[in-house]
Amino acid sequence: MHPKSKKLKTNNETTAEGNQLQSTGGDKVSHIANMDTKSQNSTAESHVDNISIAQQLLEIEKNQCEDLLKLDYGEKICYIYNPVDYAHELHSDFVIKYGNWRKKVLILGMNPGPWGMGQTGVPFGHVGYTKDWLNIKGSVSKPIKEHPKRPVTGLECTRNEVSGDRMWGLLKDLSGSPQVLFSHLFLHNYCPLFFLKESAKNVTPPELKVKERARLEQICDDALVKTIELLGVEHVIGVGNYATVRTRAALLKAGIEGVQVSTLMHPSPVNPAANKGWHAIATKQLTDSGIIHYFKPNP
Fold this sequence. Notes:
The chain is 47% helix and 11% strand. By secondary structure, the protein is an alpha/beta fold.
């Protein structure tokens, strides 16, 4: 089942109403206006059809990043990293290889980590899995402002996040291959940026001040809805409570029905429960959600 919207009027319906108002000026004017509108709509639809899903997804993220970078996050946020930009080659390779078709399931992370997507451009981007299993290729530049304790070295980075190791280990065990894994699902982050204090401490979106967080969430909610609609997602798995809560809020605000939302325990070692057999816990959660078959061959 594809998501349904409660919105009363589409853009095309609004345009049609405008044409009817113009018809009071004469049948000829109305006829020409309607022809022009049909021509414009046909051209626009044709243009969209010629743009791949991956290109549209990358454009959503690009616009999202641009809007987020205009915000003021307060004096305590001294460094903002945008791996969608400086790791663009790796990120684009990932999206084009594995995100260029409609999906049943979206695994949604919160935002990049300094040693994960912050290095590889791939959500939960463990360097080893990114290079050797996903076969992602490309070069990486540098953030506009780089913290000396959080250098970006891309696929040459020798440090990995435990979260990425656990997540990609689970996904590989369940699917056996990227081709099977991405047949029906995709990985994405709610927020594409990550934030550091002067001390190099990572600040996650829910740790931002209320005003700054609200502005970020408005932008990220809108981008998430566009992503869900573009991919035709039927089930979102929020990795951690924050991603789950934001997904539900974004769908509700947009008036979208028919998308199931469930939670996957975050694999971070900061979460004590995740250190007590996260692999088994996550497998059970996916099973209980009724979607584990999408991770395996021949669902």
